[in-house]
Amino acid sequence: MGEVVVLAVSAVLLAGFYAAMAYGLGLIYGVLRIVNLAHGGIIMASAYVTWQLFDRFAVDPFAAIPVVLVLFFILGMGIYLGLVRFLPRGPAGAVQSLLLLFGVWLVIRNVVYLLFTGNEQVIHTAYATSSVRILGGSFSATRFAVFGVAVIALIALHLLLTRTYLGKAIRAVAQNPDSCTLAGINVERVYLLTFGLGTALAGLAGVLASTLFAINPSFGAGELLKSFVIIVLGGLGSILGIALGALVLAFAEVFAVYAVPPYLTTAVGFVLLVVVLVLRPGGLFGQRVLR
Amino acid sequence: MSRWRFLLVFAAAMVLLWIAPLVLPLGDYTHDVVGLTFMFMAAALAWNWLGGYVGQISFGHAAMFGVGGFVAARLMLSSGLPFVVAWLAGGLVAGVFGLLWGHPTLRLRGPYFSIATIGVGEATRLVATYWSDFTGGSSGLSLPLAGNPTKYQLYWYGLYLLGAAVLISYGLRRSRIGLGLAAIKEDVDAAGDVGVNPTLYQDLVLFLSGTMVGICGGFYASYQAFIDPQDMFSFDRSIGLILMAVIGGIGTVLGPVWGAVVFVIIQEFLLATYSELYLGLYGALLILIILFEPLGLTGLVQRVHRLLLRRPATAASSGAPLTADRRPT
């Protein structure tokens, strides 16, 4: 019984990170109808930025968050202005956006590889080994910090989307861009800011990932897949949906240790994805999946 | 191009390529690389049946390539089957494997399907790497010397593979099935309404595509005489197929053939010296092509052709995809 509780706590902590990670992908997809295939690459790049800040300037990863957010917000707007803006909308654009952003991912990987080689990098903070004992298990303090940051970020996002003009504009454009134009919303600008915001969120996920995992240039493929699984599971309707999707995935992965060998945990997300898409195309919780 | 003209050109090209190494003083290296290029062409064409004709971008075709290669290698090691039979068997297993994951996932459209294929590719690679009883794990498998063709002989087998792939590419596009696929690409629900069964058509194309890529995997195993899962199932292999199709012209009948030529040239000559740049180069190529010429080389040739003849474009001009990939925004 004790072991199950420990695994459950572990899954909840993991789910916090997953939710933060998935939200950037979901936001961009919900508004622009584009799957940002560079999502994993951006997470990886931001993990490297965090590592560099720590390694060269001794900036604590959690203190680096504001810098990374601004940096990746600008990067995201750059990607939109330089590339994504020129894609046609509609089904033809969907295939092209996949390939284009995939190209961006490859370029990011190569740049990181050239700058920092393919070696694994780890951030060793002073508190990396300190742990918290709770419910009969011992957990790294970093994981609690990551969970806390993720929850704060999700709440901040929720407030942004529901309480501000920009947030309302973003949600309106997600529902119907044409009507938004009629209502005087600058749709193109909402697209730009959304892409920036989604990229900044991926950047945040990268900071969090850098404190949890060893990173290398090919890091991010699994994160992209998991993010996608979560937005499919939870639907794009709300923070709650994303959080539930993240919880389901995290629990499935953590408890899969009972059923499959550890190297197959990556495959758990995929199996879950296929099963859900086939059985419940509308998402686990009956919410509308924006397509 | 009319059917007879196509078949005539096809037969002439096959004959010329068949006798080329006998009369031309090709070096060993060139001869081998051309043979391997034939295989890449066939695989890229096979990817294009699904990615181009139907518009379902697969990032996981390395899975079928690897399955085909390893099944063929295992058969040759254990039963001493003739290599062609082993390749075909490997291809069939790969095709069936494609159906296994494809049947549920092909109902998904666009990004849903594509992301699922990333998962398929990764999961297959992991299983293959750890299933060392079958794949030899990280130390791989060496093929028996006896019964395995030499690289010199493989030139002609590569040519046969390419010939089969070209015929299927042309046949698929010109047939009723091709029209059905184009309808599915354009609007899957509308296609269903006019009596095209999207599940059946897409399953069929994935099976064909997976079988062909699996046979190519078997060819590759024979060519290298040694295979290991990290290489056969690598994500880069799936990327390679996408690039060949995109460079040549995604959705066109013969574009991937020219794309494979460019790809091999880049790989053999540019990347031999700048190997650390290959991902970035591929990425930059993808970005540039999608932004400036979504139909790749085929689009470029058509553009030049139009400029020379000062003739407005027609959708029916040879090789162009049945669906307009670029619409006014």
Please, could you describe this protein's structure?
The complex is a heterodimer of chains A (291) and B (329). Chain A has 291 residues and is an all-alpha fold. Chain A is built from eleven helices and two strands, in the order ααααββααααααα. Chain A has helices at 2-32, 39-57, 65-82, 91-116, 141-163, 165-175, 177-182, 187-212, 221-234, 239-255, 265-279, and strands at residues 131-134, 137-140. A two-stranded antiparallel ribbon of chain A has the order 1-2. In chain A, helix 1 (2-32) crosses helix 9. The termini of chain A are far apart. Chain B is an all-alpha fold and 329 residues long. In chain B, 75% of the residues lie in helices and 1% in strands. Chain B contains 15 helices and two strands. Chain B has helices at 3-23, 28-54, 62-78, 83-105, 110-130, 132-135, 151-174, 176-186, 188-193, 198-224, 229-232, 235-248, 255-273, 278-292, 296-309; strands at residues 141-142, 226-227. Chain B has a two-stranded antiparallel sheet. The longest helix of chain B is centred in the first third of the chain and has 27 residues, at 28-54. The radius of gyration of chain B is 19 Å and the shape is globular. Classes of the chains: A mainly alpha (291), B mainly alpha (329).
